[in-house]
């Protein structure tokens, strides 16, 4: 009874994972659900006796390996290249895409820095103009 809250949260998390897997999987299978159920039972044993349960990453990796062996897992999809391109060119295209993204991020950072420095310069010019006008006002008052 003292671990009722812990187990209910753990069970809710596993149910959420199971629903996401069911929603996004192309071919429905009960293997993920069985693995998650086994994890809940391992957690109950852990709270009762102290035997460490498997990590979620390990449990899911085991299921994915099993599905790959059966030929049912199609995850880790690589971007589909044009039919005329060879596999080597497709890999190079992915690398070029990643480089373009990095370059775009770097360019946007540079643009932001330049805008900020221009803004700072504009502010400093405005400050100088204000100071000059104050000096002129002081001279006018004296005369």
Q: What's the SSE pattern?
A: HHHH
Helix content: over 70%
Tally of individual domains: 2
Uncertain runs are 78-90
Give the distance, in angstroms, between the N- and C-terminal Cα atoms: 90 Å
Largest sheet: none
Could you tell me the mean pLDDT? 76
Number of helices: 4
How much is the radius of gyration in Å? 31 Å
The fraction of residues assigned to DSSP E strands is under 5%
Structural class: mainly alpha
Fold and architecture overview:
There is one protein chain. The protein is an all-alpha fold. The protein folds into 2 domains: 74 residues, no CATH class; 59 residues. Helix 1 packs antiparallel against helix 2 and helix 2 packs antiparallel against helix 3. The radius of gyration is 31 Å and the shape is elongated. About 9% of the residues have low confidence.
List the helices and strands and how they pair.
Elements (H helix, E strand, L loop, with lengths): L3 H21 L6 H19 L6 H15 L16 H56 L1
Helix pairs in contact: 1-2, 2-3
Which short descriptors sum up this protein?
mainly alpha, 4 helices, 143 residues, 78% helix
Concise structural overview:
It is built from four helices and no strands. The chain is mostly helical. The termini are far apart.
């Amino acid at each position: 009874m003292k671990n009722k809250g812990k187990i209910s949260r753990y069970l809710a998390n596993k149910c959420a994972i199971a629903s996401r897997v069911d929603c996004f999987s192309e071919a429905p299978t009960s293997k993920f659900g069985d693995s998650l159920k086994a994890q809940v039972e391992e957690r109950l044993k852990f709270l009762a006796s102290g035997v460490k349960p498997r990590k979620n990453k390990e449990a899911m990796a085991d299921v994915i390996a099993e599905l790959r062996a059966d030929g049912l897992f199609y995850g880790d999809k690589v971007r589909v290249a044009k039919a005329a391109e060879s596999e080597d060119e497709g890999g190079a295209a992915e690398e070029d895409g990643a480089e373009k993204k990095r370059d775009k991020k770097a360019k946007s950072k540079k643009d932001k820095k330049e805008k900020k420095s221009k803004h700072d310069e504009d502010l400093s010019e405005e400050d100088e103009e204000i100071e000059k006008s104050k000096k002129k006002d002081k001279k006018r008052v004296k005369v």
